[in-house]
Amino acid sequence: MDLSRSLDVIRIVSGKTEKVRDFVVREISLAIGVNKKELVTLQCSPGKLEYLAIGFLLSQDFIKDKKEIKRISLSEKNCCIEIDLKENFPDIGNFSYKGVIGSGCAGGITFLRNANLPGFALPKGEPRYFSRRILGLMKKFQNKSSTFKDTGGVHSCALGNQEDIEVFAEDIGRHNAVDKVFGECFLKDIPTEDKVIFTTGRISSEILIKVAKRKVPIIISRSAPTDLAIDLANNLNITLIGFARGSRINIYTHPYRIIGEE
Amino acid sequence: MDLSRSLDVIRIVSGKTEKVRDFVVREISLAIGVNKKELVTLQCSPGKLEYLAIGFLLSQDFIKDKKEIKRISLSEKNCCIEIDLKENFPDIGNFSYKGVIGSGCAGGITFLRNANLPGFALPKGEPRYFSRRILGLMKKFQNKSSTFKDTGGVHSCALGNQEDIEVFAEDIGRHNAVDKVFGECFLKDIPTEDKVIFTTGRISSEILIKVAKRKVPIIISRSAPTDLAIDLANNLNITLIGFARGSRINIYTHPYRIIGEE
User: Fold this and answer.
1) Interface ipTM above 0.95
2) Distance set, CA B126 to CA A11, B166, B226, B255 (Å)
3) Considering CB atoms only, which of B11, B131, B255 is closest to A250?
4) Given CB atoms, is B114 within the 8 Å cutoff of chain A?
5) Residue A191, Cβ neighbours under 10 Å: how many?
6) Interface of B with A in 223-242 (CB under 8 A)
7) For B84-91, which contacts have Cβ atoms below 8 Å and span 24 or more sequence positions?
8) What does A150-172 look like in DSSP terms, one character per residue?
9) Is any Cβ of chain A less than 8 angstroms from the Cβ of B100?
């Protein structure tokens, strides 16, 4: 299914009315079932739906290891995906989407803001990237989204290494785009530990936590971070970069990983 | 509490490193309790937190009438708000955030896409706005967000009439900004039926449904809509306008409410 669709639009420019054909981004509902029980329905973009579902389960800490997955069955036509897990899945009646709108996370996040989080924090030090390299990859990343060029209606996310963009995803939701990237890495055994996450969306605490869980040491966005995401990145030894535009970046935390002059 | 905070940032421009003082947007956790039970914690911006909580309850169809509210008690210091409702609130163990990430909404939204939705659809016809007037209000609306100018990290939402912006809110989440505006309208008895909703964020199905529930006939954004939001707006007789920038707008549905030449 295409990520966009064309339709008729009335355009008014300086008071003058015209009818034009334009592209808009598609939005679908993806129902995710686990072990024959309905878990959640996500509003999302078509494409990479297996990765989205697995990325969502990862973000929610429902799976940790690929061996836990017995079967993934996607019906694109019906916009639903069935995932069978080997272990008994926790009862769905008790599932409350922690993290998505932050339910029950207040304590956790306050803890994160103030603590060192042993076991969760990344080692300081490697990898190191030239700022010019990062900006070159950022440009390449942004040029990949033909859907954004057509519709202006999607966010993108990518995993990159020193040389290139390795994994790329687009979605109407910035969270979904991140989940699609990590879902693909998980299913294809692509290491994330020494890489960079690129995103077009703002970096809030929840995006930062997703990146920390996959142990990615650098996150870079063309948009703004929140102060809570910065505090978390600081505590977790993640290099957080915002406003990556043209030849400019803002480094908010752990700048030693970025080298100015090449 | 301020919506933004200043901190030190390492800026690299064309390979040259400098240390600058910059503003970033604050992110807090607001715990909402209803009738002495914890309902949800939202990640949000400070400010207008009573309106956010009430707007959230409205969006979730938990309240319909102001008389149902006995007491609202905000502790800004502890980032929590207690709301006492007269009627017994449905058991929180069964609450599954329908609509926020679309849980269980697939059927509902498919239904919405294909049906006329009697009782939910707005009357066709009034009000009518000159495109020049709408664009003038849009400009005024966007100029109101000093937090965006400082930090680039918030979305804004406003309710406007033929003359002016009546209600305005900012938040790190585009959903929260909309909920803040409708929460304020609800508590202050500000009619929404013949008004316009202005937003900086993308118009997805969930934003459109919030606007439809408050019976606002026109929504205008500087960003893109999704195809599902357009289908819903079409069925519900809402005028959906996107990409409102400079002297230009795109009208996706029910264009008769917008008059080109003044």
Assistant:
1) no
2) 20, 19, 25, 11
3) B11
4) no
5) 12
6) 223-230
7) B84/B34, B84/B35, B85/B34, B85/B35, B88/B35, B89/B34, B89/B35, B89/B37, B89/B62, B90/B62
8) HHS--EEEEEE-SSSEEEEEEES
9) yes
Cβ contact, residue pair A12, B100, below 8 Å? no
Contact A28, A4 (CB under 8 A): no
Contact B12 A260 (CB under 8 A): yes
Coil, strand or helix at B51: helix
Q: d(Cα B38, Cα A103) in Å, to the nearest integer? A: 9
Residue numbers in B near A225 (CB within 8 A): 24, 153
Q: For residue A86, what is the DSSP state?
A: S
- Kindly state whether B41 is in contact with chain A, defined as any CB-CB distance less than 8 angstroms: yes
pLDDT of A79-128, one tens digit each?
Answer: 899 999 987 776 654 454 433 343 222 333 334 444 445 568 999 988 99
Round to whole Å and give the CA distance between A215 and A200: 20
Chain A positions in Cβ-Cβ contact with residue B80 (cut-off 8 Å): 106
Contact A15 B131 (CB under 8 A): yes
In chain A, DSSP assigns E strands to 4-13, 16-25, 28-34, 37-44, 69-75, 80-85, 129-130, 155-160, 165-171, 196-199, 218-221, 239-245, 248-251, 258-259
In A98-165, alpha helices (H)? 106-114, 131-143, 146-151
B36 touches chain A (CB under 8 A): no
Number of C-alpha atoms within 13 angstroms, CB side, residue A4? 20
Nearest to B226 among A101, A153, A262 (CB): A153
Smallest Cβ–Cβ distance between B25 and the set A10, A105, A226 belongs to A226
Tens of pLDDT along B152-201?
Answer: 889 999 999 999 999 999 999 999 999 999 999 999 999 999 999 999 99
User: For A204, which of B172, B249, B252 is closest by C-beta distance?
Assistant: B172
Minimum CA–CA partner of B106 in chain A: A29
Tokens, residue A198: 């690129």
Distance between CA atoms of A46 and A194, rounded to whole angstroms?
Answer: 29
What 3-state DSSP class applies to A243?
strand
Cβ-in-10-Å burial (0-12, 13-18, 19+) of B126 comes to exposed
